[in-house]
Amino acid sequence: MGKFFKNEDQNNIAAVIGQPIKHSLSPLIHNAAFSHQNLNWSYSAIEVSKHELSDCFEEIRDNGIRGVSVTMPLKEAVIPFLDRVTPAVTELEAVNCIFWDRDELVGHNTDGDGFVNSLIAETGDQISGTSFAIIGAGGAARSVIRSLKKASVGEIVVINRNQEKAKFASELGHPVAEVGTVEKIPRCKYIINATSIGMAETTNEGLMPFPMEYLNSDQTVIDLVYNPIMTPLLLQAKERGATVVTGVGMLIHQAALQYELWTGLKAPVAEMRTKAISQISKINTINE
């Protein structure tokens, strides 16, 4: 088919593009879903740099590539190559999913709605009117803040060392979001770590995003880090009696929303989750 996309089996093609890309779990997750539903689809990870985007999009259009996931560092860089973007992308200035709407190539972002869907699915909670503290102000935090506002939560406290970034992120949650400090964590029902603190195989491995003294047993603590599945934050929060939610949920549910845009079918979330947890556990075992 070309430099980037191969179709030896005449399947419907989907892929994730980014750089680096070899550690992506997306192919395992999506191919598990395609297999479970007996779809003639395949999904691969394709290394694409910013300067290769023009050639990559030429192949996407010429070959009718059915779906594309986008990861770093291309989430903003792909926007000029699209026919249009959704309101989520307009606000976040970041694309993580590309789909066809008739003859238009459309950029979307499923991260925030994936988070909300995963939280509701895993806890059974009704989150409208409730209070959230979110640690971090990067792309993941911003997408979550936007979707929490859409879900009509009552309060969002944005906590970040860089106050300017915290203010910028909080604007996506106006008027329910405000910039705050860790001292405001005890009053919030849900605490979200949207930083990379605690992530395996990084300089942040084993670290905590905030002091545990601010947690109590009435809270729910969510870590968007999914490797390890049980991060230091979640382990200590559990010890304190809090409800904990792993980052696997957001990983799966943002992928599920992409799958549904591409195929028009309800995603087999349970099978996608099983595959992801199996692979993450395998990676952790190898690295021990």
Explain what this protein looks like in three dimensions.
This protein has 9 helices and 12 strands. The model has no long low-confidence stretch (mean pLDDT 95). The chain has helices at 26-36, 53-62, 87-92, 111-123, 139-150, 163-170, 232-239, 248-263, 269-287, and strands spanning 12-18, 41-47, 67-70, 84-85, 97-101, 104-108, 131-135, 155-159, 177-179, 190-193, 220-223, 243-245. Helix 1 runs antiparallel to helix 9, helix 4 (111-123) crosses helix 8 and helix 8 (248-263) packs across helix 9. 36% of the residues lie in helices and 19% in strands. It is α/β, with parallel strands linked by helices and 288 residues long. It has 2 domains: 12-109 and 250-287, Leucine Dehydrogenase, chain A, domain 1 (Rossmann fold), CATH 3.40.50.10860; 112-246, 3-Layer(aba) Sandwich (Rossmann fold). The strands form 2 sheets. Strands 2-1-3-5-6-4 form a 6-stranded mixed beta sheet. Strands 9-8-7-10-11-12 form a 6-stranded parallel beta sheet, sandwiched between helices. The longest helix is centred in the C-terminal third of the chain and has 19 residues, at 269-287. The termini are far apart.
